[in-house]
Amino acid sequence: MVEWNPPADRPPLADALAWPRSEWFEPKIIVVPPEIHRAFPHADALPLFQMIAKNVGIRRARAPFVLATNIDILFSDELFAFLQTGPEPRAMYRADRLDVVADLDRLPLPSPAECRALPWLRGHREDGPHYADGRRSPWYLSARAWLNRTAWNTVHGGALPALHTWASGDFTLTSRDIWASLRGYPEWPMFSMFLDSVVLVEAYRAGVKMVALAPPMVVFHLEHDSGSGWTPEGARALSRRLNRAGIPYLTGSSYDRLARAILRKEQAFHPFNGEDWGLASADLKIIEPVAA
Question: Are residues 154 and 203 in contact, defined by beta-carbon separation less than 8 angstroms?
Answer without folding.
Answer: no
